[in-house]
Every structure is written in C-alpha cells, then in structure tokens.
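User: Fold both of these, please.

Assistant: Here is the first one.
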Amino acid sequence: MSGVVGMIEILQHTHLDDDQQRMLDTIHRSSLALLGILNDILDYSESGADTLDVEHIPMQLLE
C-alpha cells in the first residue's frame, strides 16, 4: 500500500488537467485512509497474538 501511495505522489508532480488532479487527489486521500485502516488492523492483530508490547508511562492528566 505504501508503494501505491508513493506512486500517486509521483504522479501528482506531472502535468494534469483540473479533472485529473481532482480525481488523483481523491485517490490519494482514499489510499491514505486505507493505509491507516490496514495499520490499525495490523496493530489489533498484534495485540490479539500477544506480540504487542504496551508501555506504561506515568503522567499527570491535569498537565
């Protein structure tokens, strides 16, 4: 998915008409959203497989 996002970003630097640019921007936003979802699924699956390390850090909520 990162390769798709990278190729879209390269394509955005080419000469495109307004309609093409609008469509490419939509594809770019959608691919970033999908990449985020995939990363969330991977994180969730790691937590279910007990391979995710959780770090406990003390903090002051009022700060």
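And the second sequence with its predicted structure:
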Amino acid sequence: MTDPKAKGFRVERELANKLWSLGFAVMRGAASGAGARKRFVPDIVAMRNGKIVILEVKYRSRANETIRIEFSRINKLLEFARRAGGKVYIAVKYGKESWKFIPIEDIEKFEKDSTGFKLKKEIIDKIGISLRQLVERELSESIEKITLSQT
C-alpha cells in the first residue's frame, strides 16, 4: 500500500512541474502540511510577471472521497496571501482526472461544519476552473502564448 503522504508529495511535484513548464517560477513548501514549521508554508507558490498564485493542493484517488479543509488552514493561506500580495486557490485532483482550481473566494459555496469546509466532487466540478482558465485568469494571457514562448 502506498503511503498517502508520498502520493501527496508526488501530485504536488506533478503540479509544480506543470506550472514550471508554463513559465512560472515555482516553490513547493517542504513539509508544507506536516506542522514542522513555526511559520505557515503553503503547498505551492507560483510566480510569473509579478503575479503570485498560492495553492493548497488536495488529492484523492477516488471521486467519492470528500476533501476537508480546516478553517485554521484557510486563515493561514489568506494571511500568507495578504503578506505576499497573491491569490489563493485550492488545487484538486481526483485520480487521473484533470486539475481543478477553486478560487478561495468561492470556498463559502461548500458545506461546512464546526471545524472547516467539506469539498465534494460535484461542486468542485461545477465551480472549479481548469489549469488553462487559471493561467488566463491570473496572467491575462493565453496559455498558447505561454507555451509557444517556451520553445
């Protein structure tokens, strides 16, 4: 059986490499979710042309699995974004499906309980945006231009 943390690291690296190939400068937070630091470290910070995207990465192998994000984690992401001047997204991947990105301002569209939000796939699919849409939204340029400029 594969270690869930190892899977998480693998998908974080996969997304970081994908963003790098699109021309972003990318940093993956070492031990980002492990509570090993005194200061909060997001999973991925991607930068290009002065724009900063802060990502909380969530992976589930099966589509019927709900994703939970604690209020404290959301607050730490927002504080990091305030200090960095960036935008926060929740990056979600189910199995071999494409990445979906939830703008942090849409987090209230999910069910919540006393400790945090419950992200269900049907809502993620409805309001999540694709990698292409994320790039075009944040950089105001076509992903084709970005890809072509890399050759």
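The chain has five helices and eight strands.
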